[in-house]
Backbone:
């Protein structure tokens, strides 16, 4: 099991970031630039081609430097120079990567390609035709596509939809909310660059704040788009930490959370980096430490992240075996180093009531605060009122209400118990007698009346927290 001990939150330069878009071919001092990126904690760099010359240079760079990868493509500015020979050369480069059996693939994407109707340095019909050829190449090779789109929203989305491509990224995203939603519907990632830090980027920051973790990437587009507070300087991959910090502030997580989330997404999309190991039994998000004590659950909620992913905020949580109380204590380290220690996991923690109680007592003795995230089935599981057993050792409970009535609850959550919804409501009502802070939660999903859920919470005398479907986990 992968254990995380001690506290590592909010450092100045979050380690593990992957710059998913830069132009190393444009740097005369590229070796020094790469070294500085490594010193800043970057795990990998994707250097992007824009014309035949830059493609060749980037391929040579990535062959000489470990953890540097390349994309081959023709920028829409240079689409007018695209020929059949250009396509054949790009295909040959991709076919030669990996160069030998067992070697790591170094050409991992097709691009930069797309449409630029702002400068129109190539005729628009030519841009569209060349974009189609790149999409053909991505489909033929199975590689993701790196897309540039400026003032060409409708044509970009239409060509992507027609291509059937489902692996790629809209780099240096600057579009509106509709563009973001349609791109994600096609399975495409959105990558944010230094422009996110600019003063006039209010609308862009709103989108960056709200898109789901599973679609988020970060880049520099170096040597362009230097982030604040370094405007006026040449941008380099090492400056990505400033964009990552701004993204973390917007999403109310730590820079380390952003590094982990975006790097996992980059690894998935471009197939770079090391695969995840064993599921974590403890993981930090913001200034809280979460304990993953079981993957078992009594509900089969339609919105639950565990049915489509092994990850929450970049943490691999699929357990091969359940941890003991002693393993959890060792992993936690000093519980007072965190704002709270949260029992949650990929399942229902109160299925392991004895472990929860043992570890909670220890956390309290060590000066920590305890929260339990639960589906409210504790009394149904154990066929008794377990809440008096939590008195004095649990500071707060977050209980999933998840519906406004029994019928809706049964449809969405598929519980194994009859009258489970009534049981959850009773659990919340009883919890107030034994736990200082109790809140109910509900997920915004089809059929759930949040207003009615709010009235139930009000009647129970607890706060209701509404969670967005895409951010559940």
Residues:
């Amino acid at each position: 099991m992968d254990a995380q001990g001690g506290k590592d939150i909010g450092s100045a330069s979050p380690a593990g970031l992957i710059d998913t878009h830069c132009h190393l071919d444009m740097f005369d001092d590229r070796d020094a630039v790469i070294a500085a990126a490594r010193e800043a904690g970057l795990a990998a760099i994707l250097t992007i081609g824009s014309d035949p010359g830059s493609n060749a240079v980037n391929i040579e760079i990535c062959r000489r430097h470990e953890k540097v990868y390349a994309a081959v493509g023709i920028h829409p500015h240079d689409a007018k120079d695209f020929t059949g020979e250009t396509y054949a050369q790009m295909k040959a480069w991709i076919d030669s990567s990996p160069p030998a059996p067992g070697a790591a693939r170094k050409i991992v994407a097709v691009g930069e390609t797309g449409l630029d109707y702002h400068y129109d340095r190539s005729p628009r019909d030519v841009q569209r035709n060349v974009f189609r050829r790149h999409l053909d190449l991505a489909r033929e090779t199975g590689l993701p596509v790196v897309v540039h789109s400026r003032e060409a929203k409708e044509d970009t989305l239409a060509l992507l939809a027609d291509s059937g491509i489902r692996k790629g990224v809209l780099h240096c995203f600057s579009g509106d909310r509709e563009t973001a939603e349609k791109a994600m519907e096609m399975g495409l990632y959105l990558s944010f660059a230094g422009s996110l830090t600019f003063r006039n980027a209010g609308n862009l920051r709103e989108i960056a704040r709200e898109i789901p973790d599973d679609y988020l990437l970060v880049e520099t587009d170096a040597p362009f788009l230097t982030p604040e507070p370094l405007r006026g300087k040449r941008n380099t991959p090492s400056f990505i930490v400033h964009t990552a910090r701004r993204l973390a502030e917007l999403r109310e997580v730590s820079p380390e959370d952003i590094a982990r989330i975006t790097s996992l997404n980059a690894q998935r999309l471009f197939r770079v980096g090391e695969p995840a190991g064993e599921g974590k039994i403890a993981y930090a998000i913001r200034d809280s430490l979460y304990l993953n004590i079981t993957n078992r659950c009594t509900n089969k909620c339609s919105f639950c992240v565990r049915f489509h992913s092994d990850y929450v905020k970049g943490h691999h949580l699929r357990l091969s075996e359940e941890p003991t109380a002693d393993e959890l204590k060792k992993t936690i380290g000093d519980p007072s180093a965190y704002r709270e220690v949260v029992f949650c996991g990929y399942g229902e923690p109160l299925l392991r009531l004895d472990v929860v109680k043992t570890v909670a007592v220890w956390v309290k003795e060590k000066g920590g605060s305890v929260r339990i995230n639960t589906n409210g089935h504790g009394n149904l599981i154990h066929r008794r009122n377990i809440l008096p057993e939590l008195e004095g050792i649990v500071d707060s409970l977050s209980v999933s209400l998840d519906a406004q009535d029994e019928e809706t609850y049964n449809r969405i959550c598929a519980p194994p118990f009859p009258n489970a919804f009534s049981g959850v409501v009773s659990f919340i009502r009883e919890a107030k007698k034994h736990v200082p802070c109790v809140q109910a939660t509900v997920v915004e999903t089809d059929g759930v009346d949040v207003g009615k859920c709010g009235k139930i919470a009000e009647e129970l005398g607890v706060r209701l927290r509404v969670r967005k479907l895409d951010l559940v986990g």
